[in-house]
Amino acid sequence: MQPELEQPLPPSPAQQEDLVVYSRRQTLATIGGILLILFLATLDQTIVATALPHIAADLQGFTDLAWVGIAYLLTSTVTIPIYGKLSDLLGRKLIFLFSIGVFLIGSAFSGLARSMAQLIVFRALQGIGAGGLQPIASAAIGDLFPPRERGKWMGLTGSIYALAAIVGPLAGGWLTDHFSWRWIFYVNLPIGCLALIMLLWLMPPLRPRVERVFIDYGGALLVGLGTAPLLLAFSWAGNQYAWLSPQILALLAGAALFLTVLVLYAASLERRGLEPIFEPGLFRRSPRVFGIASLVTISLNIALMGSAYYLPLFIQGVIGSSATNSGLVVIPLALAAIVGAVTTGLSLSLTGRYKWQAVAGAALALLGALLLLRLNMGSQWVDALMAMLVLGLGMGAGQAVYTTAVQNALPDKLGQATAALAFFRQLGGTISLAVLGGIVTSSYVPAFHAALPAALRTALPERLISIFDDPLVLLAPGNTLLRIRAAFAAYGPQGLRAYAALLTAVKSGLAQSLHQAFVASALISLLTLLASCCLKEQVLSRQHRRSGP
What are phi and psi of 22, to 5 degrees? Predict the structure, then answer.
């Protein structure tokens, strides 16, 4: 069966005025600045996690430590659709420079924080700036290049995320050990300022042709009121509160209420010919491209992000890898993602088509998820390596395809459509960690206790067994396991056998609980593959028109 194709019509005389060409100097300088900023923004999400124990010790705020990440997640996610819409109305350059400036100011103040409360506030400020970086960077690429050429550049920007996943943990540990945790924020300043100067002087305005500018303040408020409780619910569920606790149910109900009001409010603005922050009409206008791309983006990230997060735990906890830094463990996954992103991007530009790449990427993601299902207590490093390589290729392939397809289908809503995919990508990752994390934590303890020999359950006191109710004891820093082993060794050979049986039960319980999470990931990957087959193909045009209504 031949795929559905829509051939682009030749431009009319009126459309000829919209054809734009930027100088090589402008284009290269803008791309260089964009790549630097994207690297910093992505690096910031991976580098901070490494320094969190040192931050908690220095600022004496262990109980509030989770808010360092939550504050950044909330503000960076909520502002994504707002930045996307504003860039369509006011121009890409103005909004991009503003978001970079806020991000750098937030970085500087985060490094200067003298208390945990200050750091949380400044991380929230940093997130406000970060919300505009990725979506506007992708939208700017859409402004600079015709659809046919965007693929290779989208693939290149997609590889930046994987590169930052490698560099972030390593750089975070090195800066914290040799200088101070504050330098994980200060490092943004010289690189960010260099990119800011490049973009300020050489980036073209990228200003859409808009006759009337309408700022939807009410929609922006509703986006925040609907998204914030949703993210908090998925961040806290299974950790601070049970999934069915009144707190989580109240947050989910509040999110559903405000998001419903947002849709109704936005639809009313559309009927009046105004420009809401969130346009439900995009789904009606392009259901087989924008609608399917949105669905696949969120489901693909639900399936893959959690698997990529928990795979290092399997390697270090069950297989027993000697790599103590999770950044080293995921290097094969990140390198495969780079190859997948770049290869897919180049194929988009060479063929001018995207559907088979989308289906192939989803198929690779499903194959990677199935390879994860093969992992068990007897697995070796090579088994995990094979799964990481295939999973990484699938992750990388998804970076370039859907943004290129959506930008091609909605050239007059380029910023908003690009920001929507970035929003769904962020939301999918958050849901993934919550859902798969809930599966792991709820299934580990029963699996661990079931793996314990009956004689050992009877002989050992419950208080001693409960130490191993947390599988992270396998990765505990310092000499924790050595001290526990020494305590068992005091009882002679019988004590050492009991200790070995406990560790075997922990690894068995961890392997079984992670297997349950990987099953969920495989099922979602299958649904993603089926959805990608419904993606409508439109030939990528070689002509470049100015974005905007």
Answer: -105, 150
- 316 in Cβ contact with 329 (< 8 Å): yes
Q: Per the structure block, which two tokens stand in for 455?
A: 């004689």
Q: What is the DSSP string of 298-350?
A: HHHHHHHHHHHHHHHHHIIIII--S--SHHHHTHHHHHHHHHHHHHHHHHHHH
Q: How far apart are CA 131 and CA 112, in angstroms?
A: 22
Position 461 pLDDT exceeds 80? no
CA distances from 327 to 175, 331, 333, 336 (A): 15, 6, 10, 14
The SS3 of residue 19 is strand
Angle between helices 92-112 and 24-59 (to 10 degrees): 30
Neighbours of 187 (CB within 10 A): 20
Query: Residue 478 has what pLDDT?
Result: 55
pLDDT digits (tens, 9 = 90+) for 264-288: 998 998 888 888 888 888 888 889 9
**Cα-Cα end-to-end distance for the chain:** 36
If DSSP codes are grouped into helix, strand and coil, which group holds residue 241?
strand
Residue 160's nearest CA partner among 424, 416, 400 is 400
For 230-242, write each residue's pLDDT tens digit. Answer: 888 887 877 778 8
Structure tokens at 176: 């914290």
Q: How many CA atoms lie within 13 A of 162 on its CB side?
A: 31
Q: Are 41 and 165 in contact (CB under 8 A)?
A: no
Using pLDDT thresholds of 50, 70 and 90, give the confidence band for residue 519. Answer: very high
CB 422 within 8 A of CB 134: yes
> How many DSSP H helices and E strands does the chain contain?
23, 0
The pair of three-digit structure tokens given for residue 302, joined into one six-digit string: 């639900």
| Alpha-carbon torsion, ordered 506, 510, 516, 520, to 10 deg | 160
With CA atoms as reference, report the closest residue to 95 among 400, 418, 404.
418
Instruction: State residue 3 phi and psi, 5-degree precision.
Output: -70, 150
> How is residue 65 annotated by DSSP?
T
Give the angle 265-70-157 at the CA atoms, nearest 5°.
80
| Contact between 548 and 88 (Cβ < 8 Å) | yes
Amino acid at 141: I
Choose among 57, 173, 164, 181: nearest CA to 111.
181
291-323 pLDDT per residue, tens: 999 999 999 888 887 787 788 778 877 887 654
Taken in order 144, 140, 414, 339, the sign of the CA dihedral is positive
Rounded to whole angstroms, how far apart are CA atoms 180 and 173? Answer: 10
Running DSSP on this structure, what letter comes out for residue 237? B
Quote the pTM value.
Answer: 0.83
